[in-house]
Amino acid sequence: MPERTFRRWQAKARTDRPPKGPWPQPARGAVRDVVVRHAQAHPAWGHRKVWAMTRHDGHQVSQATVLRLLRDEGLLLEANYQRERRKLAERRKAAFAKEPTGPNQVWQLDFSEYETTTGGIWRIASCRDYWGKYEFDAHVSPTANMHDAVAAVELALAEAERLIGHPLIDDCEVDEATGELLPVLTIVTDNGGPFRSFTFEAFIAAHPEIRHVRTRVRAPGQNGSRERGFGTMKYEWLFREEIDDGLQLIEQINAYRHDYNHVRPHEAIAWNRPADVYLGLADPTIPNFEIEETLPTT
């Protein structure tokens, strides 16, 4: 619209004389029913595909007309539609289709190895909260069996319940049809032997607040947050130190966890700290420093 026209309309609006219109739309009116029918039949289509189908039906119409018509009818896809579909596909690949909306809804669990300078190989097992990226207390052992997996979950449950101030089972809802408690926490693991054992599954069955989901075979990306966390632990902390034995390894892991959870900003949660997001002190989509900048000065 020319600026002179806009200014004229603006002046009329200020003097309670709105501009003329709306004007007749013969091009849109002629194909409205056809365009709406195609858009409703294929809600994932953009305006160009709907335009092509309209042309195939024998109607002479432009892409711009179809675009405006879909906007008028509220049938136009959002600009971030494809990005949201990709995010949903990633969540399904990650073995949980429902997007977490808070802490203690999805944890990822796995083992990682570390060799000390004296030659001992230690296995680190720990849970990681997917939503807040919070690293729970790690279980360090020379073995990586079902008992170690159970111990790692027990450590995480104890820490989580201490942080939130009540047992997770208190957050469970009751299924009206069966009267059973509905799990609030999904623990995602790979298909390793410890996670397929009877001992681990019996432990899960004894905790109605937990359900266990295993990823697809040979699909480590489905447990990607946990794998990425181990990589950060090693390359940012453990590989930079001379660690002689298991006791020193535990000390370094605890020091790393404090730095990671309480000091280090995390890009995936808008540069907030995992502990702040996990405890509800920060929004994982809004940087804290931006919030502080918008606060009024006194």
Protein described:
- This protein is of the alpha/beta class and about 300 residues long.
- It contains eleven helices and seven strands.
- The strands form two sheets. The chain has a five-stranded mixed sheet, with helices on both faces. A two-stranded antiparallel sheet has the order 4-5.
- The longest helix has 19 residues.
- The two termini are about 45 Å apart.
- The C terminus is likely disordered.
Structural class, please? alpha/beta
DSSP strand tally: 7
Q: N-to-C terminal Cα separation, in Å? A: 43 Å
The Cα radius of gyration reads 28 Å
pLDDT under 50 segments (min length 5)?
292-298
Helix content: 40-55%
Number of helices: 11
Strand order of the largest sheet: 3-2-1-6-7
Biggest β-sheet strands, sense, barrel: 5 strands, mixed
The rough form would be described as: elongated
Average pLDDT level: 86
**Range of strand content:** 5-15%
Question: What order do the helices and strands follow?
Answer: HHHHHEEEHEEEHEHHHH
Fold blueprint:
Elements: H1 3-14, H2 26-41, H3 47-56, H4 63-73, H5 81-93, E1 106-115, E2 121-129, E3 139-141, H6 146-164, E4 173-174, E5 181-182, E6 185-189, H7 198-205, E7 210-214, H8 224-236, H9 246-262, H10 274-278, H11 288-294
Parallel strand pairs: 1-6, 6-7
Antiparallel strand pairs: 1-2, 2-3, 4-5
Keywords:
298 residues, alpha/beta, five-stranded mixed β-sheet, two-stranded antiparallel sheet, disordered C terminus
Summarize the structure.
The chain is α/β, with parallel strands linked by helices. Helices cover 44% and strands 12% of the residues.
